[in-house]
Amino acid sequence: MDAMRKTLITLGTAMLTCSGIAWAGPDIQHWEAESGARVFFVESRALPMLDIRIDFAAGSAYDPDGLEGLAGMTRALLDTGAAGLSENDISEQIADTGAAFGGGTDRDRTGFTIRTLSSQTERDAAIALAAKLLSAPDFPQAAFERERNRSIAGLREALTRPATLAARRFSSAVFGDHPYGKESTEDTLGRITRAELVDFHQRHYGARNATVTIVGDASRDEAEQIAQLLTASLPDAGPPPALDTPAMPERMLERIPHPSAQAHVAIGMPGLAREDPDYYPLLVGNHVLGGGGFTSRLTQEVRDKRGFAYSVFSFFHPHQVRGPFQIGLQTRGSQTEAALEVVEDVLAAFIAEGPTEDEVQAARDNLINGFGLRLDANSKILDHVAMIAFYRLPLDWLETYTGHVAEVDAAAIQDAFARRIRPEHLVIVVAGGDGDRGPEGDAASEAATGGAGAR
Amino acid sequence: MIRPTLSQLTRSACALAAGLLLAGSVQANPFETTLDNGMKVIVKEDRRAPSVVHMVWYGIGSMDEPDGVSGIAHMLEHMMFKGTETVGPGEFNRRVSAVGGRDNAFTGRDYTAYFQQIPPEHLEQMMMLESDRMANLKLAEDLFLPEVEVVKEERRLRTDDNPRALVFEQLMATAFQGHPYRRPIIGWMSDIEAYRMSDAQRWYDDWYAPNNATLVVVGDVAHQDVFALAEQHYGPIAARDLPDRRVTVEPAQRGPRHTVVRAPAELPFVALAWHVPTLRDPQQDRDVYALQVLSAVLDGYDGARLPRQLVRESQIAVAAGASYGGTGRGPSLFILSASPREGHTVAQVEEALLAEIRRIADDGISEAELNRVRTQAVAAQVYKRDSLMGQAMEIGFLESVGLSWRDDEVLLAGLRSVTAEEVQAVAARYFDDTTMTRAELDPLPPDGSPRRLPSPALRH
């Protein structure tokens, strides 16, 4: 087996060298499986391994009201029993094939990932097992109760951390009653029953609601068989109804007390959809503002010049409909107001004046010249292609990416930020930092009178 | 620049290139040389995509620091981005960014490393920048003082507000009393507050020399080209005498030790640590491999013994795990940890952890478990080749802990050859409470826990 693997590696390395000379993005093959699942395949023979990702439109946005946490729990319980196999059978079989299963849920998606050796015995065993977990989960009552208890314990623990408190309040304030604002609580987790898991699986884990992305050492024929095997026995269910665009929140500032040394600050509002006319101006602009790491304006002003934070950043997280735009940082409690003031100044100046042409050039250079680096491993290709697949983006999305970035100029960025990032809709959440303020600290009393925060 | 249209032109050259590489030297990969000034250069060709990782590893970490300036290795790492005689503050990051790259650095107990990931045509510029700051760093007070504040924020974020991190900091400080592993990598807060710029300057002057550095390059490169570039850019920097390394040997522990951290949290947590061997001779140190297998049998996969027994079956814990690396310049700990489920105590999960070790010491492990660990190790050997960064990290890490990238296969063979009897033997030998340190998180009562108070929304 070792000798065979070496031959495969040698062959693969040689063949892939060529596509490496001028990398135009992966060659994505696309078809619909007999099951109705949409399949996306990138053949890559360099390594004797295969990465697969199955996505369903079954994220937390589809949690029924009052049962928040259901999507996540359904995903987490898939490997606790399926097709009569016990939880221990399943974990031992996964380990015995050398495979790794992963995935999770976000607002839009439930994902299931498989990484396996491409040798036939191991690969077939891993895929047959994954098909059972996806299609015939048993959701055993005992495992369900145990995992629900663990989820509640985990939530209680997380709620003792200022980072969690800030993130949850930020999300619910930015999205309000929109499904993107759903957060599980002890109550909603406690209300979930095994029957709800069965029902959620039946309604959302349908082949017609699935995308299958395959990257690695397989032929087209093999990929077709794999996709069909994984989806043939899924429930009969199609995509859920489309989500509404989130409404804009009213400007607010909320403080959450916590005895931590640092205050965790989150500032933002609904931002970008995956398909959005302002996608590229906001992407390139955010690179200048706070997405470009060490070179961004926020890092220069908050970290480099003033030493206010170790980490300060901004991002757009594009979703099916507008996902969050967020600025984040952590700073010692007693200097929260000073740091907030700097951030608001940077943001206000950026919206009012936009970036300089030099800054835009630097951002374009990084995004365009670094394009190949974001696709230099099977795992990275998998993530990008699965995203294209799930959000129904054009198959040439990666190939046209650098061209779109190249067209963005400072005026387009300033225009897009001025229209889209509106101060009257900005949500500001500050959690913790009380441990760095005196017992009758100025900051604390300011908060009580509502006078704190940026000017 | 990468344009879609170019790909069509080069595809026809594929067959030729494939033939060349097949006849070529894939088996010899990686490649190593040493410059005249003592700097080691290791290149691993991985030509799947136009991407290169360029890393310089310095053979110093927090374990080399004197008392009173703990964390100075990390502080200097931050200052390495603040400019040289010819490259202004922040310019390093800007140049990396301009070519499409990303860069960062990290400090460990054993090493300090700097890296950039860039398109291959910019490798030379990275070598210019990196060799420049190896020799010509320029420190300035007006940049140093704000960066000390940044590091204080980093410590608050990573450690002071993170109860589990506080537990592990105390665990190290208790298990090690003489060896410098007792100090946190980021440093004690009082030491950070007392840093002077001269401390950072001395650290740089003492240790940043080519004969204390290893260059690792992985990606779409030809090794001969990299060797030549390294000679050109790193070669001219003169070797220097390095200070003596006088590292205290940890005195033998003669009885159990305990430490408790009280901090705002919900779940209690306990970690148990034992002094165990570290790999020095990859051919001979069988106990290290056996301990690695023991760790994997306990916690190497979802249904491994600790999660199965403590979380799934008895359900006394919400989480349980084992950790042991077995490599490092300094001594090793084997650590078991768990959080009790509500209604259960730290004492109960602690007893259950110890019971799992005793069970293996008494009854051994099954062949199925052993095979499972071997299978996972072999698969991991394939999977790790997907990441350029991962491959570069592994080479640099092995070199930094006194091993070699050449040991990679020997390490895997060592792990695969472990017998059930050897695992049973190490479980019986190393887990006496005489050499155990126990660290516990005692969650602070609810008044220390968050309550969300209604606070006025502010419009402005």
Describe the structure.
The complex is a heterodimer of chains A (about 450) and B (about 450). In chain A, helix 2 packs across helix 8, helix 10 (about 280-290) packs across helix 16 and helix 12 packs across helix 16. Chain A has helices at about 1-20, 70-75, 85-95, 120-135, 140-160, 160-175, 185-190, 195-205, 220-230, 280-290, 295-305, 335-355, 355-370, 380-390, 395-405, 410-420, 440-450, and strands spanning about 30, 40-45, 50-55, 80, 85, 100-105, 110-115, 210-215, 250-255, 260-270, 310-315, 325-330, 425-430. In chain A, a hairpin with a 2-residue loop joins strand 4 and strand 5. With about 450 residues, chain A is α+β, with helices and mostly antiparallel strands. Chain B has about 450 residues and is an alpha+beta fold. Chain B is built from 17 helices and 11 strands. In chain B, strand 9 and strand 10 (about 330-340) form a beta hairpin. The two termini of chain B are about 45 Å apart.
DSSP helix fraction of chain A:
40-55%
Q: How many DSSP H or I helices of chain B?
A: 17
**What is the 3D form of chain A?**
globular
Strand order of the largest sheet of chain B: 1-2-6-3-5-4
Unreliable residue runs of chain B: 1-26, 449-460
- For CATH, the homologous superfamily of the largest domain in chain A is named as Metalloenzyme, LuxS/M16 peptidase-like
- Beta-strand content of chain A: 15-25%
Strand arrangement in the largest pleated sheet of chain A: 1-2-8-3-7-6
The first-to-last residue Cα distance of chain A is 68 Å
What's the quick description here?
Chain A is of the alpha+beta class. Chain A folds into two domains: 28-231, Metalloenzyme, LuxS/M16 peptidase-like (Cytochrome Bc1 Complex, Chain A, domain 1, 2-Layer Sandwich), CATH 3.30.830; 252-454, 2-Layer Sandwich (Cytochrome Bc1 Complex, Chain A, domain 1), CATH 3.30.830. Helices cover 46% and strands 17% of the residues of chain A.
Topology (elements, then pairings):
The complex is a heterodimer of chains A (455) and B (460).
Chain A: H1 2-21, E1 29-32, E2 38-43, E3 49-56, H2 70-77, E4 81-82, E5 85-86, H3 87-97, E6 100-105, E7 110-117, H4 120-135, H5 141-158, H6 162-175, H7 186-191, H8 194-204, E8 210-216, H9 220-231, E9 252-256, E10 262-270, H10 279-291, H11 297-304, E11 312-316, E12 324-332, H12 336-353, H13 357-369, H14 378-390, H15 397-407, H16 410-420, E13 427-432, H17 442-449
Parallel strand pairs in A: 2-8, 9-13
Antiparallel strand pairs in A: 1-2, 3-7, 3-8, 4-5, 6-7, 10-12, 10-13, 11-12
Helix pairs in contact in A: 2-8, 3-4, 4-9, 10-13, 10-16, 11-12, 12-16
Chain B: H1 4-11, H2 14-23, E1 31-34, E2 40-45, E3 52-58, H3 72-79, H4 91-98, E4 102-107, E5 112-118, H5 123-135, H6 141-160, H7 163-175, H8 189-194, H9 197-207, E6 213-219, H10 223-233, E7 257-263, E8 269-276, H11 286-299, H12 305-313, E9 317-323, E10 332-340, H13 346-363, H14 367-383, H15 388-400, H16 408-416, H17 420-429, E11 436-443
